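To illustrate this point, we now present one chain and its tokenised fold:
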Amino acid sequence: MSIAKMQLSLKFGARSPPSGFIKLNSDGSWISTSGEGGIGVIARNEHGQLMGGTAKSVTTSTALQVELQAISDGLSLAISNGWSNVEVESDNQKGR
């Protein structure tokens, strides 16, 4: 499945996804002095059941890049699991 075939809904705030959707919660953290950061993503269904997740260290130039990398990794997780109805949630103000 390619990202072009996914039904994607971007939402900001804490709530369950619509029935039949998987919700990706993504977040990132970045240290400006070193450029090092970390990202994490969790995926849950409409019942709150954990469906998957990922986390890793990254090196980037900006906090926004870290947040966008977290979203990108979440979408990759969705593609690899065959989830076609996906809602993405991020608390990053700049990425909106």
